[in-house]
Amino acid sequence: MNSSPLVKSILLLLCLVESQGKAFIRLCYFPNWSNTRQSEYARFDIDDIDPTLCTHLVYAFAAVDVDSHRIVPMSPATENPSATTGKRGRYEQFNDLKRSYPHLKTLLSIGGEYAGSDNFVAVTRNDRILQRFSETTVDLLRKRGFDGLDVDWEYPNATTKANFSKLLKALRTAFEADRSGRERLILTAALPAGSHHIDTGYDMGALTRYLDLANLMTYDYHGSWNAVTGFDSPLFSRQSDPNFDAKLSTAWTVEHYMSKGLQADKIVVGVTAAGTRFKLNSTDLTGVGAPVIKSDTPRQSDIWQLPDRYAYPEICRLLQSTHTKYVFDEEQQVPYIVLDDEWVGYEDVKSLTGKVDWMMKKGVAGAMFWALDMDDFTGRVCDKGKFPLLKALSHSVGKIENTHLTKNVNTNIRYLTKYTGAASPLGGGAWGTLLTVVVAVLVLRFFR
User: Fold this and answer.
1) What CA–CA distances, in Å, run from 142 to 29, 110, 176, 183?
2) In terms of pTM, does the model score above 0.85?
3) Which of 193, 242, 393, 404 is 20 to 30 A from 4 via CA?
């Protein structure tokens, strides 16, 4: 085959056109309790969402009712439409965002950190109940305008591992059997970062077969249970200190899932706007791994009232003190700050930009952001505009995609490289893929 620069450039461009059809997912969680906070800096509601920064919005959470074997709202009075006044419920208000932003996909998440396992076990204990649950789930999602379901079961174990797989299979079967004539409902799940939960509670074959996306909760690696300081969501493991578990990092978790058979193009890597806080045992020892004072009583943050955590705007307030020391840890690619006896490890614009670059090189499907309400959504605290973290994620994706599109392409082929339309000249989706393959075959035949 002729290996001229022309052929190489054409084939490279065709590959890039095809890759553009798979947009990097930015999946953002909206906590339904965030509108109840007292402070205007922390009180977040549907109207505060910027839909341009996310491709998928997830409404968290709804409950699984053990008596009716259905999904039910956490706050029926506000989330369901009013039977007396006709006022639209919050589910409908949430999904109304798609009217102005049709690119959006919306999902309803069930379960959550405090939901436990019992309700999930109850609806999977026999096939009849599970089928009813799955069919009523389709009805609810269609009725309220959602595009899919996110399952946040924390966590299946060795005993309930089969139940989780059965749940995913039943939901996927019901989604495919839906005869509404609309696009198939999306099925995702929030999955743990820790090796014990991963290895004992999940059948990777089932995850691959039934899930569209696997949302990895790659954070909470360290917290109030630790005796020393450590990062909430480090990109890389701390190899320089044998006292640190090498399994506690985003990279390790992602690579572990992939080694067990989960495809990269299903993986959505989690990032969080919350930072882990510690009370130092001594102000003379302030680095990563410094001893801390543990307490049985969680310390609530001032504004967001997070236990042993700070939301990003609260961290920005600490940074405004002239006594705050900022350190970016090169080994784990995340920052921490020290103010008196307070130590906080967190995510900032620099670390998030690096993480996105790593994700895209890894070939994963996208990033998951927990949660919208913990970024500086007012733009009045961090002095970086609204949603500085989420914008860093979104803008990093755009810059990296543009770099990948133009790098090493022969600019002399003007009729191919100067296209400036919003979509691929070969089209998107299945037809774009088909045309790409056809053109590639023709080029290869022509230059053979």
Assistant:
1) 20, 16, 13, 11
2) yes
3) 404
Q: Who's near 397: CB < 8 A, 6+ residues apart?
A: 24, 26, 356, 360, 367
Active site residues: 154
Q: Where in the chain is the domain with CATH 3.20.20.80?
A: 23-273+346-406
pLDDT in tens, the chain (448 residues): 444 555 545 544 444 444 445 799 999 999 999 999 999 999 999 999 999 999 999 999 999 999 999 999 999 989 988 766 778 899 999 999 999 999 999 999 999 999 999 999 999 999 999 999 999 999 999 999 999 999 999 999 999 999 999 999 999 999 999 999 999 999 999 999 999 999 999 999 999 999 999 999 999 999 999 999 999 999 999 999 999 999 999 999 999 999 999 999 999 999 999 999 999 999 999 999 999 999 989 999 999 999 999 999 999 999 999 999 999 999 999 999 999 999 999 999 999 999 999 999 999 999 999 999 999 999 999 999 999 999 999 999 987 766 654 444 444 433 333 333 333 333 344 444 444 544 554 545 544 5
Contacts 24+ apart (CB under 8 A), 93-98: 93/46, 94/30, 94/46, 94/57, 94/59, 95/144, 95/145, 95/146, 97/46, 97/49, 97/51, 97/57, 98/145
The C-alpha angle with vertex 310 and arms to 306 and 311, in degrees rounded to 5, equals 95
CA–CA distance, 92 with 30 (Å, rounded to integer): 14
Backbone conformation region of residue 116, classed left if phi is above 0, alpha if psi is from -120 to 50, else beta: left
CATH class of 23-273+346-406: alpha beta
Please report where in the chains the tokens 């079967």 appear, as a residue: 173
Helices (H), 263-348: 312-319
Collapsing DSSP to helix, strand or coil, 215 comes out as strand
Structure tokens at 18: 């095809």
Beta bridge partners of 104: none
Question: What are the residues facing 421 on neighbouring strands?
Answer: none
List all residues 6 or more positions away from 165 whose beta carbon is below 8 Å from its beta carbon.
203, 206, 210
Residue 242 CB burial class (10 angstroms; 0-12, 13-18, ≥19)? exposed
Q: Which two tokens stand for residue 404?
A: 């990948």
Nearest CA to 109 out of 30, 162, 163 is that of 30
